[in-house]
From TrEMBL:
Keyword Ligase (UniProt): no
Protein name: TolB-like 6-blade propeller-like
Signal peptide interval: 1-21
Organism: Algoriphagus boritolerans DSM 17298 = JCM 18970
Signal is among the record's keywords: yes
Keywords in alphabetical order: Signal
Cross-referenced InterPro entries: Quino_amine_DH_bsu
UniProt superkingdom: Bacteria
Length: 354
């Protein structure tokens, strides 16, 4: 019975995909023909002996920062101008300034000369000095108290962090460095709907897995969904949210089952996946669109060759196809270059001019 109630709630408050709007939220149905332009990007790929299993890429000042899965040094800095390898950081270990597990996310932060790396497994957020030769974090912040239920971290102001939260009535919560909850953003339930209980909040977080990227200058937080087609553009300043569904606009079919006493959603394997990454720029949002089932990805050996560009207001601008399969991106809007981690047998960094 509980599963039936959860399924009905999800259909009503969250997966409808209708073109509707109110004072703070707008839902749009995207179609391929909505983009102003379609363009093929022919990029150049560079491989680095020191960068094995690259996972995420970040642009900050004149540096490209690449995180890797593996051991020893988990962060690598490149000169964005010539793409020369500069140094490694992010020593893995149990000592001071060392990363205990792995890097899940990278964040630009708000300080001009530093960036952040998030270890989800250990619930620790690490800050690194860009100009220092040290491989170790200059400080780290542990998720304590209510913040422990956060599953992402982006620094939005001095001593203010936003996280995607579980077992909650809201999608996001804002905390200070001590773990005190300061505010909430993005209620799961719409106007006139029932408050979400802990079980449903847990299920919704799992169903809404995906990459999150924040731009401190324009206060835009973008959240791309991995398991189905949804891209959200959240303005934290005016609290407006634009939800973009499509472009294939299929019905999301899923079952709810019990996993260690908590409800978990199992999305039908025939459902195409949504997005593998998102980048929030000064003027546009870029997202790596998948649009394939898991079986198709397995048989083809690659996840995506497609990048969508949207305005900050959700208008479809560009539909790019790339000559290399890709999984993670960052963008230099002034130079009109997209930097991507390739998703192939010998992954490297690809540069596309758009």
């Amino acid at each position: 019975m509980r599963n039936i109630i959860l399924l009905c709630f999800l259909s009503l408050c969250f997966l409808g995909g209708c073109s509707t709007s109110n004072d703070t939220n707008v839902s749009l149905n995207l179609k391929f023909e909505d983009f102003n332009q379609s363009k093929e990007l022919i990029g150049k790929k560079i491989q680095y002996d020191s960068i094995l299993n690259p996972r995420k890429i970040l642009l900050k000042n004149d540096y490209l920062i690449v995180s890797t899965d593996g051991s020893k040094n988990l962060l690598h800095l490149l000169d964005v101008n010539g793409l020369e390898y500069i140094q490694s950081k992010g020593v893995q270990g149990q000592g001071p300034g060392e990363i205990r597990s792995m890097i899940w996310e990278l964040d630009r932060g708000i300080d001009e000369n530093s960036f952040w790396a998030y270890d989800l497994n250990s619930k620790i957020f690490y800050e690194y000095d860009l100009d220092s030769k040290s491989k170790y974090a200059v400080r780290n912040i542990r998720q304590d108290k209510d913040w422990f239920l956060g599953f992402s971290i982006n620094l939005i102001d001095e001593n203010k962090f936003i996280s995607n939260v579980t077992r909650d009535n809201f999608k996001y919560a804002i905390f200070d460095s001590l773990g005190n909850r300061l505010d909430s953003f993005g209620p799961w339930a719409g106007a006139g709907q029932k408050v979400v209980d802990e079980d449903t909040g847990y299920l919704l977080l799992g169903l809404n897995q995906g990459q999150i990227d924040y731009n401190f200058n324009n206060k835009i937080l973008s959240h791309s969904r991995l398991r189905f087609e949804l891209l959200e553009i959240n303005n934290l300043e005016n609290e407006n949210t634009i939800s973009i569904y499509g472009p294939k606009s299929y019905e999301v079919k899923y079952d709810v089952f019990d996993s260690n006493g908590m409800p978990t959603a199992n999305v039908d394997s025939a459902i195409p996946m949504g997005y593998s990454d998102v980048f929030t720029g000064e003027n546009s949002v870029f997202a790596v669109y998948i649009g394939k089932t898991n079986s198709t990805i397995t048989s083809s050996g690659e996840m995506s060759r497609t990048i969508f560009e949207f305005s900050l207001e959700g208008k479809p601008l560009s539909h790019f196809t790339t000559n290399y399969p890709i999984k993670s991106i960052c963008v230099d809007e002034k130079a009109k270059k997209i930097y991507a981690i390739t998703d192939d047998k010998d992954p490297g960094i690809a540069v596309f001019e758009y």
